[in-house]
Amino acid sequence: MKLTPKKINLFTMMKLPAAWFCGVRLKEISEKGTKVTVTHRWINQNPFNSMYFAVQAMAAELTTGSLVMQAIRNSEAKISMLVAENNAEFFKKATGKITFKCEDGKLIQEKIKEAVQDEEGKTCWMKSVGYNEEGVKVSEFNFKWTVKKKG
Q1: For position 1, what pLDDT does the model report?
Q2: Regions of the chain where pLDDT drops below 50
């Protein structure tokens, strides 16, 4: 079964309700990358009238995590996934609609192939960059995903 934005957004509503209520939505998913949007609103703001950093982190993580889930599904193997580490850098106040993009689909696909072949855990750093409506970079997140074949 192919992963679609609708299926991932339903998953978010059921399993990640904080992200759902804050407005985090997957808009695009392909073999190459993903796009997630979130709009600055009252429910996701900080005291400085911009988007709270944790909301940006949820959106950024969804771009990378969706690619990991898709690559696992396509591998047809039983694989566990977990974020082991992350870091972020902020460049501009996040106001309005913010779009996060990750284009590391091929990278995680390769790591999952390796994990299946040698049955050892693998790690993969994936980057997600957030842009405002003017195309200006507001933040950049890096997530170190670990994948390991089960059993």
Answers
A1: 63
A2: none
pLDDT at 87: 98
Domain ranges, residue 25:
5-149
Q: What is the pLDDT of residue 97?
A: 98
What pTM did the predictor assign?
Answer: 0.95
> Following DSSP, what letter does each residue of 31-95 receive, concatenated?
SS-EEEEEE--GGGB-TTSSB-HHHHHHHHHHHHHHHHHHHHHHHTS-EEEEEEEEEEEE-S---
In which element (H, E) is residue 7 found?
A: helix 5-15
- DSSP class of residue 133? T
Give me the number of domains the chain comprises. Answer: 1
Secondary structure of 35-50 in the HEC alphabet?
EEEEECCHHHECCCCC
In angstroms, the CA 87 to CA 108 distance is 18
Beta carbons within 8 Å of 95's beta carbon, 6+ residues apart: 40, 49, 50, 51, 132
The pLDDT, as a whole number, for residue 147 is 98
Q: What is the CATH number of the domain that holds 79?
A: 3.10.129.10
